[in-house]
Amino acid sequence: NKGKYEHYMQKEIHEQPESLKTTMRGRLIRGGSCKAKSVLLGGIKDHLKTIRRSRRIVFIGCGTSYNAALAARPILEELSGIPVTMEIASDLVDRQGPIYREDTTVFVSQSGETADTLQALEYALENGALCVGITNTVGSAIARNTHCGVHINAGCEIGVASTKAYTSQIVVMAMLALAIGDDTISSQARREAIIDGLFDLPKKVKEVLKLDQEMKDLAQLLIAEQSLLVFGRGYNYATALEGALKVKEVALMHSEGILAGEMKHGPLALVDETLPIVVIATRDACFSKQQSVIQQLHARKGRLIVMCTKGDAASVCVGGSCRVIEVPQVEDCLQPVINIVPLQLLAYHLTVLRGYNVDQPRNLAKSVTTQ
Ligand code: UD1
Ligand code: M6R
């Protein structure tokens, strides 16, 4: 049932304040006078000791689920102190990459039925790793065949383009990082700030959804373009990849997410006065580096659309010539949850304006159960 919405993708984008609440329900502990704020993930609490002892955490997934893991990687590394590596499921299987008994492998999959991810799971099980699932589908193959895991509880997602599952996956992996780091006193203040940020997140997502009309106007401007680049780094490298994936998947427009640190190693050659470029430059430790990326793109007459923190328009928009998307600020590691929303809206409106099928893009299936 689409309710008041025209398409499932639209409904699922606008549902995110609620789906995030459901994802967090019963899992955040407010703490009290003598008790610290904490996180309770029932599905992994008995395995936390093993996870903390592992030599490496390996995230494995495809498409949007891979991007969600990439968004959570920095906070997991920070709070666990364990090296976190990333694997696209098919590539791990193709390479038969090394997986050891001392590894914790984390399988991220909305459907829990993706063939590539399942094959990687089988491979990790054979190699004796601890296998943790993060899925939206109770009773799915990933949920059944992993040793333990967390259901993201985002509610059924029907649009082929994953939207609310992406933000819920990031939140679950941030909670996973909090749970693993829970025994470290030195990071307690940081963890409590993130937990406060999680409590506040649905409200902030509601706020960023107000950009709907602005994103529709932007889509109108981009309707006839051939290509769109999206630059991000740090916590928002994943946002760049995921924003570009949404645009190409539903709006059928070529789009590429680029790690801003790689700009001079090739992509800069593409920049001219015609190609639209989204630069994500919200406030975090990488902000000044992104400011200099903007300056360099500007010097090459790039057509810039800058996503920045509310109130920062003047400091990011050199020469006043770029378009700005202002978003509310949240805790740095949760910012990807906010920043993807305008890009989801942009992809949605671009698709509708270009007259394509939003919920079932050509050639794609919701769940890729064949290889
Ligand atoms: C569970 C209940 C929930 C209830 C709550 C009360 C289920 C599905 N969930 O939620 O209805 O409100 O207790 O405390 O009954 N698992 C995997 N692999 C995965 C995902 C999950 O093995 O990919 C396992 C978990 O290790 C766990 C079980 O499935 O044993 C349920 O996981 P989850 O729903 O995340 O647990 P709770 O949040 O505790
Ligand atoms: O169900 P899964 O999360 O395992 O699916 C993985 C990808 O097929 C999926 O995320 C795909 O990239 C989406 N259509 C993207 O919107």
TrEMBL record:
Q: Which GO terms describe its biological process?
A: amino sugar biosynthetic process; fructose 6-phosphate metabolic process; protein N-linked glycosylation; UDP-N-acetylglucosamine metabolic process
Q: Which GO terms describe its molecular function?
A: carbohydrate derivative binding; glutamine-fructose-6-phosphate transaminase (isomerizing) activity
Its Enzyme Commission number(s) read 2.6.1.16
Q: Does the keyword 4Fe-4S apply?
A: no
Q: What is this protein called?
A: glutamine--fructose-6-phosphate transaminase (isomerizing)
Q: Where does the UniProt annotation place the signal sequence?
A: none
Name the lineage. Answer: Eukaryota, Viridiplantae, Streptophyta, Embryophyta, Tracheophyta
Q: What class of enzyme is it?
A: transferase
Q: Which UniProt keywords apply?
A: Aminotransferase, Glutamine amidotransferase, Repeat, Transferase
Annotated source species: Sesamum indicum (Oriental sesame)
Span of domain SIS = 47-186, 218-361
